[in-house]
Task: inverse folding
């Protein structure tokens, strides 16, 4: 469903992420893991079409994204990246409705099918009870559920999420990932996300891509790549520090 081939990503023609190759099938979750500054967000922004690749290629269902129209890409790939939308007194339902823009035409008018897709997305993400509340009055955990509904209401083939559990307490982190797991089983998108918590990444992921200093240093089984020895090495820890904080 999603293929990234020999991708170099960066800014102003200078690569800060180099030679990344991976693929994600429908219903699979690939998680990007690595130290701060390793290039996870830059990679996701490039796959999301927000940054032009320095070199390499991204394809969705066999079609290079460089050959897709803006609307074709928006229907195929949905994102939930860092940063808050400007909601300006909007209700949660209205925020989710903005996710249907690839289908609403120039005037942004929702058809009955669009409203049904919004309703289903809010049910799926346990945010239906928030529909009439103002988005800016919600807790962080509630906002993330609404933003996930906005991302999935267009039934994308590919779903990209950048640190979706940041600023959430443990309850909301686990609840959010459980929603994501249910989503990938029911709607079957190919999911790529970044996480800081190795334990959560190990639980939710089919595969891991480990980035360090802009380079892929591991790709494969979460149990292997997120084991004790690998994490000590990749995060430049000592055995003593690991044992002190992980028992």
Result:
């Amino acid at each position: 469903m999603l293929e990234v081939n020999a991708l170099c990503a960066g800014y102003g023609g200078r690569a800060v992420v180099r030679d990344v190759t991976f693929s994600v099938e429908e219903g699979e979750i690939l998680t990007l893991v690595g130290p701060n500054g390793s290039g996870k967000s830059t990679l996701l922004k490039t796959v999301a079409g927000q940054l032009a690749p320095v070199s390499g290629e991204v394809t969705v269902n066999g079609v290079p994204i460089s050959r897709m129209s803006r609307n074709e890409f928006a229907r195929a790939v949905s994102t939930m990246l860092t940063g808050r939308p400007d909601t300006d007194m909007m209700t949660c339902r209205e925020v989710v409705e903005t996710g249907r823009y690839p289908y609403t035409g120039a005037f942004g008018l929702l058809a009955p099918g669009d409203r049904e897709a919004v309703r289903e997305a809010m049910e799926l993400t346990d945010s239906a009870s928030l529909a009439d509340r103002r988005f800016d009055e919600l807790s962080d955990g509630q906002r993330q559920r609404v933003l996930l509904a906005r991302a999935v209401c267009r039934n994308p083939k590919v779903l990209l999420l950048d640190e979706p559990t940041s600023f959430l307490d443990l309850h909301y982190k686990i609840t959010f990932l459980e929603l994501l797991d249910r989503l990938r089983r029911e709607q079957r998108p190919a999911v790529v996300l970044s996480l800081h918590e190795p334990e959560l990444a190990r639980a939710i992921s089919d595969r891991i891509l480990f980035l360090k200093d802009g380079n892929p240093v591991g790709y494969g089984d979460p149990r292997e790549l997120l084991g004790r020895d690998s994490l000590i090495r990749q995060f430049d820890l000592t055995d003593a520090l690991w044992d002190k904080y992980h028992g």
User: Anything to note?
Assistant: The first strand starts at residue 2 and ends at 11. The mean pLDDT is 91. The CA atoms of residues 164 and 185 lie 19 Å apart.
